[in-house]
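Hello forum,

I keep getting stuck at the same step: I have a sequence, I want structure tokens, and every attempt I make locally crashes halfway through. Rather than fight my setup again tonight, could one of you with a working pipeline run this one for me? It's a single chain of 332 residues.
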Amino acid sequence: MTEENVRWGILATGGIAAAFTAALVDLPDAEVVAVASRTEESAKAFADRFGIGRAYGDWAALAADGDIDVVYVATPHSAHRAAAGLCLEAGRNVLVEKAFTLNSREATELVDLAAARGGFLMEAMWMYCNPLIRRLKALVDDGAIGEVRTVQADFGLAGPFPPAHRLRDPAQGGGALLDLGVYPVSFAHLLLGEPAGIEASAVLSPEGADLQTAALFSWDSGALAALHCSIVGGTGTSASVTGALGRIDIPDGFFHPERFVLHRDGRDPEEFVLGPADGPRNTLRHEAAEVMRALRAGETESPLVPLAGTLAVMRTLDAVRERIGVRYPQEG
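Reply #2:
Ran it on my machine without issues. Output:
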């Protein structure tokens, strides 16, 4: 890192890569110095769009670029293990888009590789870095609603998506669960940790991707979570956390909320709203800022998105897939 800026490399050129790069442009201490794609043409077009100095037509060239402090991996899930592993092997720090990998085995391999190389590694679970989600978590931890009894969350898109779309393609980790369901699952994990019991049901496409999945988690404390994801119906993306003494409701967009409401027995409802200093509701800059903070502090993982938590989420996603009968071609 230079004294002033953290230098980023972007690996992949799709929609989420563009959104994240746009967020980096808004950070005065971030500098995007290189981008890579599977083709030089795509990389150059992306570089021209964002004023990036170097464009590579292969991932290895980006990984070998010693001027890069951290690489953001924005490929489909199916390529996360290969892309992030290549960068870690080359000595780069890495931020990997969610879902972290296809399965917990691949996730463990990346975590072990980062530890062996002494590099920084983090899942791009921007929800955990959101100021309002952090405030909600603090309220729950402080006992504002008492012991948590129930968590509810949903995330669905209306579609329809054709079979060749990445959201329907099993070879790319397609289906509702890894792309959308990771948010409700991660929300439940944030508040209650890894569940002791997991039940799930799904509607599968002819090619074997989950079109919509519902899951019920249980914990030894007696808490339950009812979660849902879909690529065949647009849901309200709402969430609710109910405790023994009250409830917190996120009316919409729970993974990047604009507001939430705290209901406590015997008190008027309290509304918590995203402040002007927090930036726009859909910003990814909090995630980027956390990566840069951790790098400057010499940390190899973020306390906001700890690797143990990422591994736990991946184990839960594996368990859900086992129950609904979804396997990806790479898994045999």
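The two ends are 41 Å apart (CA to CA). If your local run keeps crashing, start a new thread with the error log.
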